[in-house]
Amino acid sequence: MSETSIPMTLPLDTEGFLRRECPHCERQFKWQPAEDADDGAESIQSQQVVAYYCPYCYQPAPLNAWWTKEQLEHAQQLMMSEVLAPQLRRFGRQGRQTSHSNSFVKIDVSVPDFPIPEPLVEPSDMIRVDFPCHPEEPLKVIEDWTAEVGCLVCGIRYPLDLVRELPHSSEEEAE
Question: Residues 33-42: contacts with CB within 8 Å, 24+ apart?
Fold first, then answer.
């Protein structure tokens, strides 16, 4: 069996955050993929991290377990339109070529329409939190969250007021 790779782009919000979902509590948050830091700061990608911690329920899960339901559905729809539909059409053509009106076996394949899914859109929602333990790995949490927030990398919990991003002085002046 061969493998097929399909490129899939996940949208970021206006600040460069990617939506994720805890596989345990199913709450969503946003993670900012670290850019290659020129200042020597070590990012999650360069560490030997084997699990991330949910900022809400504090449970760890493997690195590949944080997809949102919408991201998984989008990937499945993309796979169906880019891989499954062409394979079914090819199978149908081969079946028609081997089927003859006088043959014992007749193959008729009807391929459903698998349209290419619309791109995902990422709203700029949630509030930013910056952790003292891993300041290079900020998150965004749901706006009505009031409990402690856990660091994605090490799981240390902090009071929301301590890690919540303070408004920029230019925003305060605009008000």
Answer: 34/136, 34/137, 37/136, 41/136, 42/136
Rounded Cα–Cα distance for residues 129 and 159 (Å): 10
Q: Are 54 and 25 in contact (CB under 8 A)?
A: yes
User: By mean pLDDT, which of 58-67, 72-81, 146-155 is the weakest?
Assistant: 72-81
Kindly tell me the number of DSSP H helices and DSSP E strands found in the chain: 4, 8
> What average pLDDT score do residues 70-76 get?
92
- Residues 47-67: what's their mean pLDDT? 93
- H-type alpha helices, 25-132: 69-79, 85-98
* Mean pLDDT, residues 15-38: 87
Provide the sign of the torsion angle of the four alpha carbons 9, 10, 11, 16, taken in this order.
negative
For residue 111, the tally of other CB atoms under 10 A from its CB is 14
Identify which of 163, 152, 165 has the alpha carbon closest to the alpha carbon of residue 45.
152
Q: What pTM value is reported for the model?
A: 0.74
